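tool=predict chain=A
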Amino acid sequence: MPTIKKIAFIGGGNMAEAIIKGLVRENAGVQLMVAEISTERRVYLNDTYPSVKVVEHAAEAAAFGEIVILAIKPQQATSALTALEHVLHPNQLMVSIMAGVRTQTIEEALEPGTRVVRVMPNTPALIGAGATAICGGRKAVASDLDRVETIFAQIGLVVRVEEKLMDAVTGLSGSGPAFVYTFIEALADAGVKNGLPRSVAAELAAQTVLGTAQLVLQSGDHPAQLRDKVTSPGGTTIAGMHSLEVGAFRGTVMSAVDAATRRSQELAGK
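tool=predict ok
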């Protein structure tokens, strides 16, 4: 990552750690600093990532980074931006992973001309298998998006979207892992109900979801085409699919994404 020398993180939670882990794993050659208010969390980060400087105060980290990643909860946005307003300067690139917080909100809270890129990653980033969407604010330029994509490519897939679609991204891939965890749990429970040991059922369920997702990505086929290949006439799969349709499975999943998308819009004050 030759064009980036210093990255600062405001907040050292799970998502910040996922990014840090990816950068350290890939030996990206960039200096990292993270500001975290929790003493326990600071100790953990310091012990786990000795090459990363861990500090308590956000202002110290903000002054350090050429790229500053806001890895805090959206409810903390106003207070954090107020505290950092006089520390940050327009030459720095601001990257926000706060759900629902628009680039315009960040731009208006900071010095005129501040460049902002909004990012929505998800929790599988912790193992380098994340799905991340990025979009630029009004002042962000193409090279800003290129640099941010380079960072988040260390933790998985990166796509670019218009900002008006970021709430939908939040509802789909941001909240989606929770929906998938619930599906895996339900599959495993069904296996137990039908006689499988819990450990075997859980392992089979998780691997089934993992392998199926990989096949979708690697084959390039539509999921419906792949489903048809395993749905034999009069067989077990079509019997199960009928039960899913009776239970409005697809409609329920779509409603869950709708609800998460609406909540993201609410966080933005839309």
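The chain has a mean pLDDT of 92. The CA atoms of residues 230 and 236 lie 10 Å apart.
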